[in-house]
């Protein structure tokens, strides 16, 4: 107990000690008795300091439990403290689940900053949610988190998705919330890959309204005009997959009545995707990308000019791509012809903007 209390300091961060302590949580008895102690610790804290909460969440992140697969193994190598001839250690999964639920019911009521809120959601999604007895009680908490914006909203969205998928949660305006998250700021958040992954899951059904899916495709296309190159690659695949799932959206690729850019009927500021008039627009943004400065982006955008494949593109391979990955790929390319001038010469005289004739007289 003294060791755990020292790890849960209210005055200083103990992240370095927790990393060392994690080596001992590989032992089943250590893990078991730490969880046995935690309910007593949290019940004695009415409103702990932010430092304590951060240390506590870091500890929970270091002591994950897998209740479904835990069983006593005859090998004593999984125990830190065992005596020859002593009583056998038996791990009780029901006790572990009860302690976890008791701890979490207290932790989630603590007041915390935005940074702690983000850390709490990560721990919840990674380790806690699968073991809660009544996960639907998190609905209000996740809905409130969804309105906070930024990384907190993305993490809350993942929690809501899990509740919808595994526990039949009904969320009436989930697509409107998802639609509103696609703003230029999303490209600078830590968990943007989760947003693309979850959006792909939410929009995977072929029974969704084409007006709704068209709004997502159009909003994504508009964002490509301001997105970093590595994110443009993801968006292009995403739009392509949406069109494959809903062949009726092919009309957006070459809309006969789409009009000029200045007359685009799409309303970017409309929060309701159904009312955005995306279905009446066209994906002219993808045509614009065919003139992108990076050849791989320009080439990828040309998929709208060719027959679509019979299977979807695998987005998972590039979800974690970065600008460095694109740079490294360009470095490895072998250039057959090196460009020496950017202006087509019109005569044997010096090219446009040449300074040689300004300072030299050629005879």
From TrEMBL:
Entries under Pfam families matching the protein: CBF (PF03914)
Occurrences of domain CCAAT-binding factor (ranges): 153-301
InterPro entries reported in the protein's UniProt record: CCAAT-binding_factor, Noc4
Listed GO CC annotations: Noc4p-Nop14p complex; small-subunit processome
Superkingdom assignment: Eukaryota
Gene Ontology biological-process annotations: ribosome biogenesis
Family: Belongs to the CBF/MAK21 family.
PANTHER family: NUCLEOLAR COMPLEX PROTEIN 4, NUCLEOLAR COMPLEX PROTEIN 4 HOMOLOG
Protein name: CCAAT-binding factor domain-containing protein
Lineage per the UniProt record: Eukaryota, Metazoa, Ecdysozoa, Arthropoda, Hexapoda
């Amino acid at each position: 107990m003294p060791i755990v209390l020292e790890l849960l300091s209210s005055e200083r961060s103990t992240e370095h000690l927790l990393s060392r302590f994690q080596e001992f949580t590989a032992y089943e008895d250590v893990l078991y008795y730490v969880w046995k102690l935690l309910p007593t610790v949290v019940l004695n804290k009415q409103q702990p300091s932010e430092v304590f909460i951060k240390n506590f969440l870091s500890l929970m992140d270091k002591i994950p439990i897998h209740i479904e697969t835990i069983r006593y193994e005859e090998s004593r190598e999984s125990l830190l403290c065992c005596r020859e001839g002593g009583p056998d250690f038996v791990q009780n999964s029901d006790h572990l689940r009860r302690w976890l639920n008791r701890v979490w019911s207290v932790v989630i009521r603590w007041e915390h900053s935005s940074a702690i809120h983000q850390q709490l959601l990560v721990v919840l999604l990674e380790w806690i949610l699968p073991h809660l007895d009544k996960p639907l009680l998190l609905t209000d908490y996740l809905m409130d988190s969804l309105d906070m914006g930024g990384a907190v909203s993305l993490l809350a969205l993942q929690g809501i998705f899990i509740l919808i998928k595994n526990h039949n949660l009904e969320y009436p305006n989930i697509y409107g919330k998802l639609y509103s998250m696609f703003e230029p700021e999303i490209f600078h958040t830590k968990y943007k890959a989760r947003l693309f992954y979850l959006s792909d899951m939410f929009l995977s059904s072929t029974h969704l309204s084409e007006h709704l899916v068209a709004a997502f495709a159009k909003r994504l296309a508009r964002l490509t005009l301001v997105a970093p190159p590595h994110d443009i690659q993801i968006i292009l695949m995403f739009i392509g997959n949406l069109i494959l799932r809903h062949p009726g959206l092919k009309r957006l690729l070459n809309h006969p009545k789409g009009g000029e850019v200045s007359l685009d009927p799409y309303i970017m500021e409309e929060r309701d995707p159904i009312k955005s008039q995306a279905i009446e627009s066209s994906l002219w943004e993808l045509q614009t990308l065919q003139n992108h400065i990076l050849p791989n982006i320009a080439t990828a955008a040309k998929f709208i000019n060719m027959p679509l494949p019979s299977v979807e593109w695998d987005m998972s391979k590039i979800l974690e791509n970065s600008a460095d990955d694109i740079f490294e790929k360009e470095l490895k390319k072998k250039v057959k012809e090196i460009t020496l001038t950017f202006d087509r010469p019109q005569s044997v005289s010096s090219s446009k903007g040449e300074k040689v004739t300004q300072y030299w007289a050629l005879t």
